[in-house]
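PROTEIN DATA CARD
Card holder: S1-C subfamily serine protease
Chain length: 252
Origin: Cellulomonas oligotrophica
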Amino acid sequence: MRPPTAAAPGRATRTLALALVGATVLGGCALLPDPPTPVPTGVVPSSAPEPSASVGESRLSPDGFDAAQRMAVRIRNVGCGTLSTGSGFAIDEHTLVTNRHVVADSAALELSTYDGRDVGAEAASTADLADLAIVRTVDALPSAPVLADADPVVGDAVTVVGYPLGRQLTVTDGQVVGQVTDPLNANLGQVLVTDAPVEPGSSGSAALDAEGRVIGVVYAKNADDLSFLVPVSTLRSMLEDGTAFGPAPTCG
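Structure generated from the sequence above:
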């Protein structure tokens, strides 16, 4: 993956005509409006990942992990003859947020935390409007971030915390480069564009501001290495709407 470069909002809009895809073939080519689908990956390592030095070291806990890393969750979607991986993040002790395409059509969901601990999944629910899902867990999640009160603006810093390729917990940085109409569902309205690097398996990752607050959820990327976020304003309104999420489809 080549290093990202800053882009003006107009450039971000133009690139939407080129190969926008979800967590399936991030960096590959497809034509709109094909929806994202999971991509199989190799076996997810069972050992705990190493802390990333790019997170604010002044906020590290005694085990060497930042609070932002502690709330990240690796997700394995075991389907009927398929395996895919994604990311998610806790919003309370027993609830995590991810993408619809990360959890859809599963026979089982396998969750693990930053320290390699397995967490039981109780139930998954998906939204129709946005590529969002929530998963209720049997076991307690280690940490939950604060949701920002408002969406970021162009030029604001962005940090993405997740499990690209289903492997080590990774932190990448960038900035908001624009806002565009969601190319996968125009009814959703505006989504955020950022140059923070993401890869297959990053779908569902939390995007954080400089204060560690959630400002969006990663769900897609285009051929120019620009990634797309469901903004926190949409996430907040859907979490507050009791009808926004329904039972996630399973594969059998």
